[in-house]
């Protein structure tokens, strides 16, 4: 997507009011480490380290809208249990919520147990039956009252019982009265009962389930979309297809396929919520449908690189699109703030982060050997690179030989280097404090006591290691030899 256009669309999305209606869940993640198998049964024993909790389903859609800069209003149902109290506390100040208490149902809760970035088990607590009586009437009434200022209506149907025919009818009536588009994220077998919704958004397996048709190739997707439109009065269907992007069928038009370079997928939990949020908010900001789909696809490519049920910000979308316009090598060169964001994603995936630093004025075999060894000790390696001014202060006015941009590009071109970040100070102490690496590495011509940041890293439980020194290679010796010739 054109960067200037994306920035314009994101600016228009800021503050746009969006109404979100549907099933609300509480997503809990229990993180720990597995070091042994139980003596009672052949199952891993998880040593619990920490826990995180967040709203899921319609609640996660509202959270994504808020993080993207929109103004969401959330309507849903919770039980009258401890999970309901947790859910209400999670709403926060950025979302207006009308969460109706139903004493006859449990709050839908998903608890995931995670070790080393992998889910070991998920435990669900839920009541799966349609709401009725006074609860259904209150839902319909709240939709009618809250839809007045909304520029988009989003219906999140996870099949837990909130999205009944009466609630759908209230949403359709509100959309007609306000002119706001109604977008439905559906897990249902049939799309027909959503009436003349502006768009229904299944994934490929849900489209296959709804039509009984295969959805593997573009041609199969087009056939299934045609069948789904024929069986439903909705105006358009957008199918999400994981690494194959998204495909949009608008009644009376050819199917259009949207793709991006496949992201580094870590966790798809909640990705559909992010797509619904970005799509709805973009439409609320006045974007044409095709641009809204591009923004939703961009948002999904960012969120699947995160752990757990996550959200994405407008800044992250701009950063990701900027990286997509750059060569892969250039994309490794980031600001200090970009480094911190990237490390947070790596850490959430349980990856071990290493850090080293230097001038790297003239890259020689000794550098490559020590960087390769450093990378073998961690999952991701960051190189802190002295700016030109910093090099001159340390090495003298005749240095560096190569400017910062050239040095950064050469380092980023190495497969053993994952990120390059410049620092202008005389030492990398502040950069190390920002990165908080698990591993700090320097070349073999250093002693452990002389490494800047060693005490810091050990202080938060990290490790300091010295890479093997390669005899006969140094920048000073290389320059001296060049001068002789």
Give descriptors for this structure.
485 residues; UDP-N-acetylmuramoyl-L-alanine:D-glutamate ligase; Rossmann fold; six-stranded parallel sheet; five-stranded parallel sheet; 18 helices; 39% helix
Outline the structure in words.
39% of the residues lie in helices and 24% in strands. With 485 residues, it is an alpha/beta fold. It folds into two domains: 3-325, Ribokinase (UDP-N-acetylmuramoyl-L-alanine:D-glutamate ligase, 3-Layer(aba) Sandwich), CATH 3.40.1190.20; 329-484, HUPs (Rossmann fold, 3-Layer(aba) Sandwich), CATH 3.40.50.620. It has a six-stranded parallel sheet, with helices on both faces. A five-stranded parallel sheet has the order 16-15-14-17-18, with helices on both faces. A four-stranded mixed sheet has the order 3-2-6-7. A hairpin with a 5-residue loop joins strand 12 (246-250) and strand 13 (256-258). The longest helix has 15 residues, at 289-303. The protein is globular, with a radius of gyration of 26 Å. The model has no long low-confidence stretch (mean pLDDT 91).
Give the helices and strands, then pairings.
Elements: H1 3-13, E1 17-22, E2 24-37, E3 44-57, H2 58-67, E4 71-78, H3 82-90, E5 96-101, E6 109-115, E7 118-125, H4 133-146, E8 152-157, H5 165-178, E9 182-186, E10 199-200, H6 204-211, H7 218-230, E11 236-240, E12 246-250, E13 256-258, H8 271-284, H9 289-303, H10 314-324, H11 328-331, H12 336-348, E14 353-358, H13 365-376, E15 380-386, H14 388-395, H15 404-412, E16 419-423, H16 429-435, E17 439-442, H17 454-459, E18 463-466, H18 475-484
Parallel strand pairs: 1-4, 1-8, 2-6, 4-5, 8-9, 9-10, 14-15, 14-17, 15-16, 17-18
Antiparallel strand pairs: 2-3, 6-7, 11-12, 12-13
């Amino acid at each position: 997507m054109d960067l200037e256009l994306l920035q314009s669309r994101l600016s228009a999305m800021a503050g746009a009011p969006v109404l979100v209606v549907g099933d609300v869940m509480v997503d809990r993640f229990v993180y720990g480490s597995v070091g042994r198998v139980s003596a009672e049964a052949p199952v891993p024993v998880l040593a619990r380290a920490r826990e995180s909790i967040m709203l899921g389903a319609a609640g996660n859609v509202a959270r994504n809208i808020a993080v993207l800069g929109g103004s969401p209003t959330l309507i849903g149902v919770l039980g009258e249990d401890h999970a309901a109290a947790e859910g209400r506390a999670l709403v926060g100040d950025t979302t207006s919520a009308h969460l109706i208490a139903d004493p006859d149902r449990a709050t839908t809760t998903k608890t995931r147990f995670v070790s080393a970035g992998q889910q070991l088990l998920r435990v669900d607590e839920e009541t799966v039956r349609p709401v009725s009586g006074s609860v259904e009437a209150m839902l319909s009434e709240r939709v009618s009252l809250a839809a007045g200022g909304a520029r988009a209506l989003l219906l999140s149907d996870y099949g837990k019982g909130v999205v009944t025919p009466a609630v759908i009818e209230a949403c359709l009536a509100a959309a007609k009265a306000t002119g706001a588009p109604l977008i439905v994220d559906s897990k249902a077998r049939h799309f027909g009962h959503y009436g003349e919704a502006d768009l229904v958004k299944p994934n490929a397996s849900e489209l296959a389930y709804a039509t009984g048709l295969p959805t593997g190739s573009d041609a199969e997707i087009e056939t299934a979309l045609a069948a789904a439109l024929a069986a439903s009065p909705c105006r358009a269907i957008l199918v999400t297809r994981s690494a194959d992007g998204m495909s949009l069928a608008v009644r009376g038009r050819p199917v259009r396929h949207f793709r991006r370079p496949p992201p580094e997928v870590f966790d798809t939990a909640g990705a559909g919520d992010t797509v619904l949020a970005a799509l709805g908010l973009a439409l609320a900001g006045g974007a044409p449908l095709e641009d809204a789909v591009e923004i939703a696809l961009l948002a999904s490519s960012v969120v699947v690189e995160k752990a757990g049920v996550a959200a994405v910000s407008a800044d992250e979308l701009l950063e990701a699109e900027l990286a997509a316009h750059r060569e892969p090598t250039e994309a490794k060169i980031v600001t200090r703030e970009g480094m911190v964001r990237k490390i947070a994603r790596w850490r959430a995936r349980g990856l071990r982060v290493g850090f080293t630093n230097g001038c790297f004025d003239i890259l020689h075999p000794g550098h490559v050997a020590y960087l390769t060894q450093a990378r073998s000790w961690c999952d991701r390696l960051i190189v802190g690179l002295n700016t030109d001014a910093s090099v001159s202060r340390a090495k003298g006015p005749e240095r560096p030989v190569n400017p910062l941009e050239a040095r950064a590009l050469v380092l980023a071109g190495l497969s053993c280097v994952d990120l390059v970040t410049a620092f202008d100070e005389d030492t990398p102490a502040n950069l190390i404090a920002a990165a908080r690496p698990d591993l700090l590495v320097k070349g073999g011509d250093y002693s452990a006591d002389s490494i800047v940041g060693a005490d810091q890293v050990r202080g938060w439980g990290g490790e300091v290691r010295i890479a093997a020194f390669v005899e006969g290679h140094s920048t000073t010796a290389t320059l001296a030899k060049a001068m002789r010739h």
